[in-house]
Amino acid sequence: MGQRNTPLTEEGLRQAHRWNGLFDEVDLSRICCSDLDRCVRTAEIIAGTRKQPVEPMPAFREIRLGDWEGLPVAEVARRFPDAWLERGTHLATYRPPGGESFEDLKERVIPAFDRIVYEAEGDIMVVAHGGVNRVILCHLLEAPLDNVFRLGQDYGCLNIIEFDGESFQLSVVNMRPNVNGQFRIL
């Protein structure tokens, strides 16, 4: 999908509504999100009737895929076979034509993430995209970006990151509500 500014699908709307209400008892000090419509809408649904505004931030946009933007993976592999193989070999540093690498994405995302966390006066929520989430998780785990796709980030998932002022702990990664609003960890 990349940075195409598409609305939430019906399934995306259902996923967002499954999280609505879960955070009612959490005193969120900020709600930040990508400025792409699908994240803004997801954040608004999850925020519900809270008084905090949803803060769209361009730094949390999904990775820019350039000429590959919006194409299915199979189509990219068919139309750009050499480039597709090159990306697989150098996942962290490869830039699709007109796009950005995961290293570029990290340079955009991590300063914004750190600023929000270190300025926080309480719990925060960040609603972002799979690539953005994976880059943050790799950063916190000190894992190479070549491993970015070893981290599951299903559409509509929840990650919980705890910060004690000195270090981070990943409490939950890739948690999804099922269709009944219950939760399951895979």
Give unreliable regions as ranges: none
Cα-to-Cα separation, first versus last residue? 24 Å
Oligomeric category: single chain
Q: What proportion of the residues form beta strands (DSSP E)?
A: 15-25%
Instruction: Name the helix and strand elements from N-terminus to C-terminus, one letter apiece.
Output: HEHEHHHEHEEE
Q: Tell me, what's the shape?
A: globular
Beta strand count: 6
Strand order of the largest sheet: 2-1-3
The count of domains is: 1
- What Rg, in angstroms, do the CA atoms define? 17 Å
> Looking at CATH, which topology would you report?
Rossmann fold
Alpha-beta content class: alpha/beta
The name of the CATH superfamily reads: Phosphoglycerate mutase-like
Mind telling me which CATH architecture this is?
Answer: 3-Layer(aba) Sandwich
CATH class bucket: Alpha Beta
Largest sheet: 3 strands, parallel
